[in-house]
């Protein structure tokens, strides 16, 4: 498995992240053996980056036990912000108090003295982003956290946080987390362009769309998901790869700085999914997958695209950009 720099840092992270949700429940002896096999399967494939959260049940404690004695080879990330106690108004959110308490709890559960990547789990609209960024920077300066990121947030929040960090010499976010797959492409409007512009890595969760794109999954898929699943199945038949591998590889083919988060309940499924790391999709296959569930452009995307070539904006002479196209 290849490794890439994490955002604008020197940290090396594997192209596929291991999700922490399969470690949600501690379980009995057989469950623990399965947890060990999951971690070993990922390690054998060359993976080094784990993504969990304080809200994922027993996941932090399970991983703390599994990584004990071998902690330093892993890039360990967790999240804070979702409530730890529904009866405590201050047990959730991204304010300084909850960050401090949640971080100390995560350190204890993970049996470690620092978190490699601490993610804001969800944008907290009640806490000023200035407070969150200052508290995160304090945690970095204290040595409890090395890098930071934000999950499930409007693009403007992450962009404002980045600007605040730059202006005030504080630790900026190095990455974002977003839902991303062939059928769910809304983040292509705003979050992913923002991340690309600012040099942030993007961790994409749910790349197989709850198993729908892998030919499994429960519930009733939408028509958009069914169309995407058909295109993935056709591409899989052509390439000889498993549908899940095609779906995961597509996210990497679209943007090389997107890191799919792989979560599987058995080592066999995980091993199959990890096969996406070596799968290179032809441009024609990627284009057909793109066309299966194209995102509807927002008004601003279409408006600014048209305005870029409008005489009303650039004059009748026109402008040529440094990249050779009409600006």
UniProtKB/TrEMBL annotation:
<feature type="domain" description="NADP-dependent oxidoreductase">
    <location>
        <begin position="16"/>
        <end position="293"/>
    </location>
</feature>
<dbReference type="Pfam" id="PF00248">
    <property type="entry name" value="Aldo_ket_red"/>
</dbReference>
<dbReference type="InterPro" id="IPR023210">
    <property type="entry name" value="NADP_OxRdtase_dom"/>
</dbReference>
<keyword id="KW-0560">Oxidoreductase</keyword>
<dbReference type="InterPro" id="IPR036812">
    <property type="entry name" value="NAD(P)_OxRdtase_dom_sf"/>
</dbReference>
<dbReference type="InterPro" id="IPR020471">
    <property type="entry name" value="AKR"/>
</dbReference>
<protein>
    <submittedName>
        <fullName>Aldo/keto reductase</fullName>
    </submittedName>
</protein>
<dbReference type="InterPro" id="IPR050523">
    <property type="entry name" value="AKR_Detox_Biosynth"/>
</dbReference>
């Amino acid at each position: 498995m290849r490794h890439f720099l994490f955002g604008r840092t020197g940290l090396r992270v594997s192209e596929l992240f291991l999700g922490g949700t399969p470690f949600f429940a501690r379980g009995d002896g057989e469950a623990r053996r399965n947890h060990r096999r999951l971690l070993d399967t990922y390690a054998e494939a060359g993976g080094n980056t784990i993504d969990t959260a304080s809200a994922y049940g027993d996941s932090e404690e399970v991983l703390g036990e599994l990584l004990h004695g071998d902690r330093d080879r892993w890039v360990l990330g967790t999240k804070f912000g979702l409530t730890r106690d529904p009866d405590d108004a201050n047990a959730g959110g991204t304010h300084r108090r909850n960050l401090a308490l949640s971080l100390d709890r995560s350190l204890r559960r993970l049996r470690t003295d620092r978190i490699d990547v601490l993610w804001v789990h969800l944008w907290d609209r009640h806490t000023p982003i200035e407070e969150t960024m200052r508290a995160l920077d304090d945690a970095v300066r204290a040595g409890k956290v090395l890098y930071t990121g934000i999950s499930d947030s409007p693009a403007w929040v992450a962009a404002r946080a980045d600007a605040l960090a730059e202006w005030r010499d504080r630790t900026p976010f190095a990455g974002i987390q977003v839902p991303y797959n062939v059928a769910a492409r809304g983040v292509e409007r705003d979050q992913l362009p923002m991340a690309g512009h600012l040099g942030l890595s993007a961790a994409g969760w749910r790349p197989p769309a709850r198993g729908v794109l892998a030919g499994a999954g429960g519930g009733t898929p939408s028509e958009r998901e069914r169309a995407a699943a058909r295109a993935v199945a056709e591409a899989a038949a052509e390439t000889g790869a498993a549908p899940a591998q095609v779906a995961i590889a597509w996210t990497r083919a679209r943007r090389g700085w997107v890191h799919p988060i792989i979560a599987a309940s058995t080592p066999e499924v995980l091993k199959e999914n990890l096969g996406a790391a070596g799968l290179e999709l032809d441009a024609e296959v990627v284009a057909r997958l793109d066309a299966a569930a194209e995102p509807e452009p927002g008004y601003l995307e279409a408006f600014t695209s048209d305005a870029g070539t409008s005489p009303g904006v650039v004059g009748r002479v026109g402008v040529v950009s440094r990249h050779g196209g009409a600006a």
